[in-house]
Amino acid sequence: MQRNGVGVSPWLGYALTECRITFLNPEPLRRFGQTDARVAWSLARQIACVCYEVIDTLGANAFGTIDQRVSRHLLELAVRQPEGLVVMADQHELAPVGGLGPRGGGALAAIRS
InterPro entries of this UniProt entry (predicted)? Predict the structure, then answer.
């Protein structure tokens, strides 16, 4: 399978699942946050959690070693099976997905062994 001259993983379709989208009108939430301290505190806690997740992800992707980045990527792709966590792809499919290029393939081989 080709798209824009680049091979596409056969597992790509499994990333899409049925979902429901909910749109939230921010104006009532803003009003509640300004008038109810409990709502304001809940929003502040949630924003802090999201901020720490973003910092953690960016830090790991920008400054992590290749082994750390590959390991993190494998954990994100893994699905739980009776025998444990399993990634349904080979190292040639995984290296470009993680943005690691040819260096990622060597790291994957080292992790596999």
Answer: RmlC-like_jellyroll
**Domain total of the chain:** 1
pLDDT tens digits, 74-109: 888 888 888 888 888 776 666 655 455 555 556 666
> Which positions ≥6 away from 31 have C-beta within 8 Å?
none
- Return the structure tokens found at 68: 């750390």
SS3 76: helix
Q: Which residues lie closer than 8 Å to 48 by C-beta, 6 or more apart?
A: none
Pair 10, 1: CB distance under 8 Å: yes
Separation of alpha carbons 53 and 68, rounded Å? 17
pTM, entire model: 0.48
Q: Report the candidate in 70, 71, 79 with the shortest Cα–Cα distance to residue 98.
A: 70
Residues 6+ apart with CB under 8 A from 2: 8
